[in-house]
Amino acid sequence: MTLHEYFAPQPTSTVELPDPVPLLRSLTQGALEVLAGVREVDQLARWFSEDAFRSLVTRANLSARARSARGVAPARPTFEILSIRVCEPLDGVIEAVIVVAGPGRTRAVAVRLEGLDRRWRASSLAIL
């Protein structure tokens, strides 16, 4: 093993990781609050891979510009998590869909978690 490989993020087996459902709930709530403009996106940085975080930052900036163009102030979103469906395509990888009901519509949030360094990290998040 090279020095670079030794210090690189190490994959972790699912049995060595905590239950992903509480994290899925928190990430969903946090991401929706970021898009609504009531939470700083940096608060979620430690739970995301670099690419997924960059994507969330881009989407948050677009949401802020859209609110500004319409003259709408940021407001805390009200929603209810209706269901969470989890599957494990590989050891140490969780893919989940969280169905969220808001006042105007129902959305699906797709999340892929990967076990790295004995904790879950979101490598992909899509709000549909």
Summarize the structure.
The chain is an alpha+beta fold.
Distance from first to last alpha carbon: 41 Å
Strand order of the largest sheet: 1-2-3-4
Helix content class:
25-40%
Which regions have little confidence, pLDDT < 50, spanning 5+ residues?
A: none
Q: Write the H/E string, N to C.
A: HHHEEEE
Query: Number of helix segments?
Result: 3
Structural class: alpha+beta
Broad shape: globular
Number of strands: 4
Tell me the strand percentage band. 25-35%
Q: Mind explaining what this structure looks like?
A:
The chain has 128 residues and is α+β, with helices and mostly antiparallel strands. The protein contains three helices and four strands; from the N terminus they run αααββββ. It has helices at 3-7, 21-36, 50-70, and strands at 80-90, 93-101, 106-116, 119-127. A four-stranded antiparallel sheet has the order 1-2-3-4. Helix 2 packs parallel to helix 3. The longest helix has 21 residues, at 50-70. The termini are far apart.
Main features:
single chain; alpha+beta; four-stranded antiparallel β-sheet; 3 helices; 4 strands
